[in-house]
Amino acid sequence: MSANEGGITVTKEDVEKFRRSCIWLRSLWLHFQTLFEGRNLKGELRTTAPAFFADVYRLFVEHLISHICRLTDEVEIKRGRKNLTVKFLIEHSDFSTAPDTLEELRRLSESIHSFRERILPARKWFIAHLDLEAVRLGKPLGAASDSEWKQFWRDLQDFLDLMHRHHGDRNAHPGAGWSDAESLLAALRDAELWREQRRREGAKS
Description:
The protein is mostly helical. It is built from eight helices and no strands.
């Protein structure tokens, strides 16, 4: 495939910027998992500030879906303007000497975009637009199973690794993201323990 399709060639810097965006996305996912999905203070969060954490939950979900869809959008939506996406990196890189790499990247892209199709209805009808018919139906859209999410993260990690290696940065780690949301939960736990201790002390006096 030509590296100059549309007159643009992917650079190492393009790949790095895409990687950073993916790392940030992964960090958001880890924040979300820590706060709302794992062994945590889910019940306490709901009782301490139910409205606030319900809004935070919705913000996380909407932004995760929006960001994944941005990374997997078409190469060009508006005439003359390109999107830095999975397809762009494949279509504007030169794989003339690396056909096996291209084949593997296409396989990963297909799997990544299959996941996109799962969550796309939520972006189209509830996030990018407030579709009247979807609102009236009142059904959740864009749900994906835990196994589908795990496969998406594996595919994205492998895609980044191959892209970095192909563009000459063999030492770059794709990056897994990180979260310090556990520190927030620890602080809430400590506060709850402190209040409980004070209640016990007051009962004894």
